[in-house]
Amino acid sequence: MYTTVHLGQDSSKISRYLSNTLLDEIENTLSKGESVLLYLNKRGAYNSLICQDCQYLFECQNCDTSQSVHHNPNHLLCHLCTNRVNMPLKCPKCAGVKLMSIGVGTQQIEEALGKYFVGKNIYRFDSDSMRNISSKKNALNDLDQADIIIGTKMITTGFDFEKIGCIGVILVEQELGSPNYDATERAYSNLKQLIGRGNRKSQETTIILQSFIPKNEMIRSLVESNFKDFLMQTLTERKLFSYPPFGEVVKLEYRHPDAEKALTYIKKLAHTLREYNKDNSYIIIPGTSTFKKNNSYHVACLIKGKNTRLLLGNIKSQILHEVKLSVIFS
Ligand SMILES: [Zn+2]
Ligand SMILES: [Zn+2]
Q1: 194 vs 161: CA distance, rounded Å
Q2: Is the ipTM here above 0.95?
Q3: Rounded distance, CA 282 to CA 308, Å?
């Protein structure tokens, strides 16, 4: 049984990411001696931006993937092509101004539930709490004792849970935030797998999907549509955006301790590539901002089109000799 809950209308007092419906269902499930599995994507470190009026999810115009909210100064960044835009003041779709930054991590949920369900055995299962094999093994023993399990993608594969009476997806749109051209498909297969955790057991499992934008087309197709519809829609989108299987996407990523130097490098690289692309066989999208990773600033340049190796052949020696430049085929 599926229920989709609109968090904007049903947020509880203890956290805006926990609906009254979900809290009631947790209580109900625990009272039957069954346990609860709560799932959320770990990418809670970055928030997404939504329009509360029309439920638009802000996404990159180059890549069609969800943008992340960054601060100092406030801006939106695409982690796929590193395109950066100033923080919008209104919605591009409905011109509404009620924009909201959303995103949550496992620890936040654990803390909120700990205060609400006092004395219950709440177990957090993610890469932070699970650093090595032995803690993984111990975790499996502990899971049998757990009343509430809070976990990331790690729980969607490889584990079978006894006595799961309720599965809750904390924030469905957070699934769409991964910096991959196939974010929606990944989200779909993650959710399918997750729901499978419950259905494998004989008893009926209640599934609660929480979202601030339940009417959003992507959320609806994730939640409601059957796989065929979903696949058809995705294939059409991919054709539109020249993604595989209708084309290739190559990401050239350059890193440098100096952000300005990284940007200049990618700008020059894009210029060179365009010299070899006079007939516009390829789409070349240089990033306009950097993001910091391991003390280096990273900038990407995306290339879309058929047989991208042909274009890359022109800058072969640069690719081979420049150690700060990586080529990532998707
Ligand atoms: Zn809007
Ligand atoms: Zn992008």
Answers
A1: 11
A2: yes
A3: 8
Encoded amino acid at 131, one letter: R
Q: What is the mean pLDDT of each run of 10 residues along the chain (330 residues)?
A: 87 95 96 90 77 92 84 88 92 96 91 95 78 61 81 70 82 76 70 64 74 83 56 59 70 93 95 93 88 84 87 88 85
Q: What is the CA radius of gyration of the chain?
A: 22
Closest ligand to residue 302's CA: 2
CA of residue 172 to ligand 2 center, whole Å: 21
With 0-12 / 13-18 / 19 or more C-beta atoms within 10 angstroms meaning exposed / middle / buried, residue 95 is exposed
Query: In 3-state terms, what secondary structure has residue 249?
Result: strand
Annotate 255-269 with DSSP letters as a single string: EESSHHHHHHHHHHH
Ligand 1 centroid–CA 172 distance in Å is 19
CA 17–ligand 1 middle distance (angstroms): 21
Which ligand lies nearest the alpha carbon of 90?
1
Q: Which ligand is nearest to the CA of 96?
A: 1
Q: Where are the beta strands (DSSP E) in 54-199?
A: 68-70, 75-77, 84-86, 99-102, 122-125, 148-151, 164-169
pLDDT of the residue at 304: 86
Which single residue is written with the structure tokens 């609109």?
6
- Separation of 54 CA from ligand 1 center, angstroms? 4
Q: State the virtual CA torsion across 258, 259, 261, 264 in degrees, nearest 10.
A: 180
Q: Domains along the chain?
A: 2-45+103-236 (3.40.50.300), 47-102 (no CATH), 248-329 (3.30.70)
**E strands along the chain, which residues?**
2-6, 35-39, 48-51, 68-70, 75-77, 84-86, 99-102, 122-125, 148-151, 164-169, 206-211, 248-256, 283-286, 291-293, 296-305, 325-329
Distance 131 CA to ligand 2 centre (A): 32
Q: How far away, in angstroms, is 96 Cα from ligand 1 center?
A: 5
User: Tokens standing for 106?
Assistant: 């496992």
